[in-house]
Structure formats: structure tokens, C-alpha cells
Amino acid sequence: MKNIERAIEKEIELMPKVELHVHLEGAITPKTFFQLANKNQVKLPCENLGDWEKYFQFKDFQHFIDVYGLAVSTIKKAEDFSTLIEQFFQYQESNNIIYSEVFLSASFIIQNFRNQEILEAIEFGIKQGESKHKNRIKLIPDISRHLPETQEQVLEFAIEGYKRGVFFGLGLGGMEVNYPPKLFRETFKEAKRNGLKVVAHAGEAAGSESIWGAIEELAVERIGHGIRSLEDDRLIKYLRESQIPIEVSPTSNYRLGIVTKDENHPIREMIESGLLCTINTDDPEMFSTNLSKEYKMLSLQGFSLEKLYQLNKNAIESSFLEVDEKMKLHQVLDKYRNNKNSIKP
Q1: Where are the domains of the chain?
Q2: CA distance 209 to 222
Q3: Count of C-beta atoms within a 10 Å radius of residue 218
Q4: Tens digits of per-residue pLDDT, 61-111?
Q5: Residue pLDDT, tens place only, 321-340
Q6: Hey, which residues does 222 pair with through a beta bridge?
Q7: Which of 92, 159, 161, 243 has the fewest beta carbons under 10 Å from its own?
């Protein structure tokens, strides 16, 4: 049995994977932020890398917010984003993630940088990443809900980046409670008019009403998290019929207390209810996870390899890529499974 379990873990690790819900800043190693702090003369609450790495590990939600803010505060120059993006390529490749759609904390960026300089730095980082690594990324700048005053500038930034081929969507993240989707209705309408794909975090800290708001007020094409959908039978029926993809991040849900640690993750119930789910990491470096660990966790909760492959295929189908590009990703995944002695589920 142990040999079978190890073989399954190895197959999961080597599986070419696709991820749709990961934050750039949350996937960067503490070492990189420590180096940026030294370079940019930003004082951290720790004197050495070892202490910073310990501090960086998630303890509770407030600590998560504090660490995220400190990490982002080390970014002082446009060139820093080139560094972060290139490292992200390396990080994803090391986890056999061949394609990612990545959120960028745009409400922070537009307050600290000019659009032109940051877009050039991002373009450079992507070119460097694509030349050195065997994976691809697409960026989705997002609005922090608790900073609604930034939404017009973020939209302008997103449209400008879209025209340059740097971005291809607009997201909505941050604190759900007290910041309902209707506050961002006109901004999302304008984003869609300009060709941007639209997504929103919903149904994580807030209930099913937040998901309804994302659907009815923002006309989103994917839902981030969405696990609170199970509280509303009418919503379950709608999501089953519409097949709006849901970006589920199991470890994030456990670490933030949305799901209690002694219960199996509700993604099984979501799938059995007919919802279209994908597996993601959210902020992997801050939650001490990676995409392979997410799949392994579900394997331990009774998911067969066949179901895990299907979740990966769901991510390909739920991406914002064109049909021919999706087909290429399917072919890579199918070739991997067919060309090896895959363990039968």
C-alpha cells in the first residue's frame, strides 16, 4: 500500500498541471522579498532570512494580511516586478505547472507606479520568463474590494495592459464583507466593453449572496473560491446549469478557517452537485502549499487519480485561452498519462 501511495504522489508531482487562481505576490518566496527589502532599504520585523521565513508562514488571518502588506511594501521599483515575474515562471515550472492565469495586486501598483513603467517591466519579465522556462502565464490585474476608490485607475491600467498584450482580464479580490459586488458594477461593465475577461473572488468569507452578486451585478465568467455556494440550493442549480467555473483553493480554505481542519473539503459535494470545479493554490508560499500538495490532499480524501486528472482538465477548459491553445494543453496532459505506466484508479 505504501508503494502505491508513493507512486500516486509521484504521478501527481510529475503531472503537467494548469492553475487559474494564484496571486503573483503570494507565490513569491520569502527569500526574494527579503532580498528586495535589503535592496530597497525596507525594514522588516526580522533581522535575518531565517527569522523572516518563520514570520512569513501563515498563523491567522490578521497575520496573513500583515505579512502580505509587508511583502508588497518591499517592491519599490518597476524593475522589481520583472524579478517577481521571472521567479514566478521558475516557481510554477518547478511544480510542473505548464500554464497559469495569475492575479496581480493592481490597487497597490497604481498607487505607487506609473502605468507605462510598470507595464514595460512586466513585459520584460514575461519575455525573460518565456525564454528561460517551459511554461506560460497570463496576468489578470485585480481590484482590492476594500479600496473601491482605486477601481477606475485599475480599470484604466488593465485596459492599457490589454491593448499591449500584457493583460487579458480584470479581477476583484480582497475583503468580501462590507464591499458587495454592486460597488464595482459599472467598472466591470466597462471592462467587458473593452474586451477584458472578468472574474471575482466570491463565496469565501461571505455567503452565497456574494456569489449571486458576482453573477448578477458583474456578469463574471469565473468565480474565485465559491465554496459557500453549497448554502443555497437555488444557486447550486444555477451553477450546475450554467457551468460557470469555480476556482477552488482547498488549503487556503483550511488555513483561513473557512473549512475546519477536521472535515473533508466540501469540493467533493460541489462536484457531486454538478459544479465545474478547478484546483488552485491561491497564495502558495504564504499557506505552505503547492499545486501538487493540493492534489495529494484530495487523493488522501478519497479522490481517484481519474478524478484528479479530470479536475486538471477542468482547469484547461475553464481557462481563457482560445480553443486551439486549450487543445494543445490537453494533448500535453494526455501524452503524459498515455506514455507512462499510470496507476489505475
Answers
A1: 2-32+80-338
A2: 16
A3: 23
A4: 778 878 888 898 999 999 999 999 999 999 999 999 999 999 999 998 998
A5: 999 999 999 999 999 998 86
A6: 199
A7: 243
**Sheet containing 277-279: order of strands:** 17-23, 97-105, 136-144, 169-173, 197-202, 222-225, 246-248, 277-279
Helices 61-73 and 49-56 pack at an angle, to 10 degrees, of 130
- Strand pairing partners for 172? 143
Q: Confirm if 291 and 97 have CB atoms less than 8 A apart.
A: yes
Which residue type is seen at 241? E
**Cβ neighbours, 10 Å, residue 138:** 18
Angle, CA 344 vertex, CA 338 and CA 345 arms, to 5°: 125
Return d(Cα 193, Cα 187) in angstroms, integer.
10
Q: Which CATH architecture has domain 2-32+80-338?
A: Alpha-Beta Barrel (3.20)
Confirm if 173 and 201 have CB atoms less than 8 A apart.
yes
C-alpha cell at 196: 477584458
Q: Which residues have C-beta within 8 Å of that of residue 152, sequence separation ≥ 6?
A: 187
pLDDT per residue as tens digits for the range 281-300: 999 999 999 999 999 999 99
CB 18 within 8 A of CB 315: yes
- Mean per-residue pLDDT of the chain: 94
Query: What pLDDT score does 274 carry?
Result: 98
How long, in residues, is the chain? Answer: 345
Confidence of residue 345 (pLDDT cuts 50, 70, 90): very low
